[in-house]
Amino acid sequence: MSSKTRVRLTPSQRLSRGLKYSTVGPVDVTRGAVGIGVNSVRSSASWVGQKYRSSQVAQQLKEELVAASEAVANLPETLEKVRAPKRRRRPRLLVVAVGAAVLAGGAAAFSIARRSTQPEPSPLPPSVEVTPKP
Fold first, then answer.
1. Number of domain units in the chain
2. Which parts pass through the membrane (predicted)?
3. Which domain, by its residues, includes 32?
4. 82 phi and psi angles, rounded to 5 deg
5. Whether 27 contacts 14, CB under 8 Å
6. Does residue 12 contact residue 40 with C-beta atoms inside 8 Å?
């Protein structure tokens, strides 16, 4: 049992085989030359695309460097703006004291309002006996 497997030749192998054999020579020479040309064009196109992408990256890096240098040049003005005295904040202790006073006043008002809504005990004796008889 023999199996015939056909080995595909690369363009350069095909070219050398075409130059070697005279019967299939012209066909192999043509196919080899075309294959080498196609591979060369494909490689060149890949190289050009790579160069284009790297030039775009370089352009973006250049723009970022320009922006960074401008930011560094404007750093003194930016720091002065940040260091400029702002409105003076009230001390925390004063805020806490005012909050505590408001809470104390609210608690006092709540207890006074609650006492006023409770009915006062009647001075009269109850009309029904408090202890039931069996």
1. 1
2. 93-113
3. 9-80
4. -70, -40
5. no
6. no
**How many Å apart are CA 72 and CA 65, to the nearest integer?**
10
Contacts of 13 (CB under 8 A, 6+ apart): 32
Instruction: Identify whether 113 is part of a domain.
Output: no
Token pair of 57 as six digits: 């990256």
Residues in the chain: 134
* Spatial separation of the C-alpha atoms in residues 118 and 112, rounded to whole Å: 10
Per-residue pLDDT, 79: 74
Residue 105 Cα distances to 8, 46, 91, 110, angstroms = 98, 81, 22, 9
For residue 88, being part of any structural domain is answered with: no
Identity of residue 131: T
Query: Within a domain: residue 107?
Result: no
Rounded mean pLDDT, 23-48 = 83
118 in a domain, yes or no? no
> Residue 24 and residue 90: Cα distance in Å, rounded?
99
- Confirm whether pTM is higher than 0.85: no
Least confident piece of the model among 26-30, 35-39, 59-63, 97-101: 26-30
